[in-house]
Amino acid sequence: MTVETLTTFFGWMAVLNIAYLTLAALALLGVQNWVLGIHQRMFPVDETDLRLAYFTWLGNYKIAAMVFSIVPYVALRLM
Q1: Alpha carbons within 13 A on the beta-carbon side of 47
Q2: CA atoms within 13 Å, Cβ hemisphere of 44
Q3: What does the domain layout of the chain look like in residue ranges?
Q4: Residue 7 needs a FRET pair 20 to 30 A away by CA distance; which of 16, 33, 59, 76 works?
Q5: pLDDT tens-place string over residues 20-66
Q6: Alpha carbon separation from 16 to 9, 28, 30, 67 (Å, rounded)
Q7: pTM score of the predicted model
Q8: Rounded CA gap, 57 and 76, in Å?
Q9: What is the DSSP string of 24-78?
Q10: Cβ count near 11 (within 10 Å)
């Protein structure tokens, strides 16, 4: 596997991760009350705890996307 192939792979992986993160964030912002209602019926969790869980999940996904796709892409581009 060449450096160019790895760079292309990590570049597309970064694009897909950023697109999914953006879509998930916009979906949570756009239909937040609907999603809250579904999750409150499924699990006996308070609304503030659910909002915190959504925020935590988005933050953890953002960190994982940076560590596993964006940083390797930038490092390979700098080589």
Answers
A1: 6
A2: 0
A3: 3-78
A4: 59
A5: 999 999 998 899 889 999 999 999 999 999 999 999 999 999 999 99
A6: 11, 18, 21, 14
A7: 0.84
A8: 28
A9: HHHHHHHSHHHHHHHHHHHS---HHHHHHHHHHHHHHHHHHHIIIIIHHHHHHHH
A10: 17
CA distance 75 to 68: 11
Per-residue pLDDT, 10: 96
Cβ(7)–Cβ(77) below 8 Å: yes
Three-class DSSP category at 79: coil
> Which residue is it, tokens 């940076």?
66
In contact, 69 and 17? CB cutoff 8 Å: yes
